[in-house]
Design goal:
The protein has 473 residues and is of the alpha/beta class. The protein has helices spanning 2-24, 29-36, 40-48, 50-61, 73-88, 95-109, 119-129, 136-139, 143-159, 182-186, 195-200, 252-273, 319-336, 341-348, 351-364, 367-373, 392-399, 404-421, 437-451, 456-472, and strands at 167-176, 202-210, 220-223, 241-244, 280-285, 299-304.
Length: 473
């Protein structure tokens, strides 16, 4: 029995190594899903734990049998204290939240460079300290509850005579707004800035549209600074609804402000323009905990079941993902077409440019695509779906410079990382003036690039400032 278990375990490691090798050779995630019969999340987990998998394979080849040791004492101690504090507050913790927090603590306090917060490490941590986490699968709503929700929704719309034109859905998502496909562009001879900081700098974008796709509201854009330098002269003329929050995420206050001061007026204005009226329904996720928004006789909030699938989250069904794909294509194309290379592009690219790209991507999403995403929930026939959103022109221009296979993998990797961000907490110092650590570092990098083309005297003074900043940090 033991021998059989050992062979099975070795086979599993070999299979994981084979998948990692295929990814390095250029195979796409979709190809691997088809060939190996694995889920997308499993393959992404193999990518994240690549170092641990390779180490396991090496150990087996050498027949090493070492007992696990505690080599991450700082992370272990601080994570244990953080978990106790969160549990005392009554918060629900998942494995992904603990892994994200462990990686954050490792970055902040240092430790072995190969620390991955792998699932094996997490299991040992939970066993050592008796920590129990919530299973995501247990949080999902079962099929019977989903069917009941759909039936109740359709009955309510019929009983209260709510037209599909007046049924809306809002869904939020995380966006790593500075990340480019590093490996691909590195082959073009470009040198890159600190990728770790680029990945940490994220925004929250919320998209809202009605069930027919005929009314798309401006994207709600949440960033961590109230007055970024890039918005100094244009904050009141933006292509998005801009809000600030210290962690760059949506909260109850921001949602209520958006709901009362933007959503309602926008819908009322549209009804007047089209000489229509009627009750309006907005569907939001229950897990967002936006309980205090005041309803009136003409507006009703409907909370989606916790853990609901994309089938009953219309705007999240292909629409959000497609919008982010178009955004990244536009971002990549702009970087590739920059006359002075990616390094200069980064020096000039700011949060206002990100807003413009997000807005442009949202404009590309067709009403037919949005209409199609509501098909299952509204029990429409497939014939009503209409054509899908296309972004071929942008992709064709990108393909002239780099392989589209790598672009697809980059898109998928970004989506996987962003998917866990909204579930986690971050803490640490915050600068309300809008000049935090990441933006300050970016300012000094911009200064260095700008000074390269100036006189010796200007370069000297710039270097003095840069050296002084580096000594202090």
């Amino acid at each position: 029995m033991a021998s059989s278990h050992s062979r099975k375990e070795q086979s599993t490691v070999a299979k994981r190594m084979e998948i990692l090798q295929r990814l390095e050779e250029g195979a796409t995630v979709n190809q691997l899903i088809s060939e190996y019969g694995l889920s997308r999340a499993t393959i992404y987990r193999y990518q994240r734990n690549a170092v641990a998998i390779r180490q396991a394979a090496e150990n087996r080849r050498r027949n090493l049998r070492k007992k696990p040791s505690l080599v991450h004492d700082v992370v272990d101690t601080r994570l244990r204290g953080w978990v106790w504090m969160r549990q005392a507050l009554g918060d629900t913790l998942t494995d992904s939240i603990l892994q994200e927090k462990a990686r954050e603590l490792h970055e902040r306090f240092g430790g072995p460079s190969n620390f991955m917060a792998s699932r094996g490490w997490l299991r040992s941590f939970k066993d050592r300290h008796g920590v129990h986490t919530a299973s995501i699968s247990r949080q999902k709503t079962n099929a019977t509850e989903l069917d009941k929700f759909e039936e109740n929704l359709l009955n309510m719309l019929s009983a209260e005579n709510v037209d599909e034109e007046n049924v809306y859905n809002i869904n939020e998502t995380s966006v790593m707004w500075k990340i480019l496909p590093q490996k691909i562009l590195a082959r073009e001879g470009e040198r890159f800035l600190d990728c770790k900081n680029l990945r940490k700098d994220r925004v929250t974008v919320a998209l809202c549209a009605n069930a027919t796709g005929t009314h798309k509201l401006l994207p709600l854009f949440v960033y961590k600074y109230n007055n970024p330098r890039a918005l100094k002269h244009c904050k009141h003329d933006l292509p998005v609804v801009y809000k600030s929050q210290r962690n760059g995420r949506m909260d109850e206050y921001l949602f209520n402000d958006w709901y009362d001061n933007y959503f309602k007026p926008s819908v009322i204005q549209r009804q007047r323009q089209e000489h229509r009226e009627g009750k309006v329904v907005l569907m939001v996720e229950k897990c967002m905990l936006f309980e205090k928004a005041q309803e009136d006789p003409y507006f009703k909030l409907i909370y989606l079941p916790p853990g609901s699938t994309v089938t009953i989250r219309p705007v999240d069904q292909n629409v959000v993902t497609k919008c982010k794909q178009v955004f990244r294509n536009k971002l990549l194309l702009r970087a590739l077409q920059h006359a002075h290379g990616v390094r200069r592009f980064y020096a000039e690219y700011d949060i206002k440019d990100c807003m413009d790209l997000i807005s442009g991507a949202w404009d590309v999403i067709t009403s037919e695509s949005i209409n199609s995403s509501w098909r299952k929930l509204m029990h429409r026939s497939r014939l009503d779906a209409g054509p899908e959103t296309q972004d071929q022109d942008c992709l064709e221009l990108i393909s002239e410079s780099i392989p589209l296979v790598g672009v697809t993998e980059w898109q998928e990797q970004c989506e996987a990382e962003e998917g866990t961000w909204l579930e986690t907490e971050t803490d640490g110092p915050f600068d309300p003036s809008g000049m935090g650590e990441v933006e300050t570092e970016q300012m000094f990098r911009d200064l260095a690039i700008w000074a390269e083309t100036k006189s010796d005297n200007i370069r000297l003074h710039a270097n003095v400032l840069i050296d002084y900043y580096n000594q202090k940090h």
